[in-house]
Design a protein that fits this description.
Helix content is 16%, strand content 60%. The protein is of the alpha+beta class. The chain starts with a strand and ends with a helix.
Length: 96
Amino acid sequence: MLLWKAFRSSREEVRLEGNDSEVAVRTMRHGLVCRERSFPRHAVTDIRSVLFMAGGPAAAKRIELIVDGKAERVALCVEASAADAVVAQVRSALGP
C-alpha cells in the first residue's frame, strides 16, 4: 500500500509504503530503488512535521517517522500544507 510519495528536484522520488508487518521509506531514481529503510510496523509509533524553513513566501517542513522513540527523517523540505496533509494521511493509515 502506497501511503505517500513526494518528488524532489534532483529527480528522486521518496515513497513511504506500509503493510501489516512493516513500514518502508524508499528513495527512487528513474524508477529504481537507490535507498531503502524499513521498520517493523509495531515500532513506528507516530509521524510528525517540523518547521524547517520559515523564510520566503512559503514555509517548509521536515517530515519524520517516530520509530522506537527516535526520529527518522522521511523528507527534508516539503511545503507546510503538503507536509501537514501527509502527516494526517499517514496517522490515519497507522491507526490507533
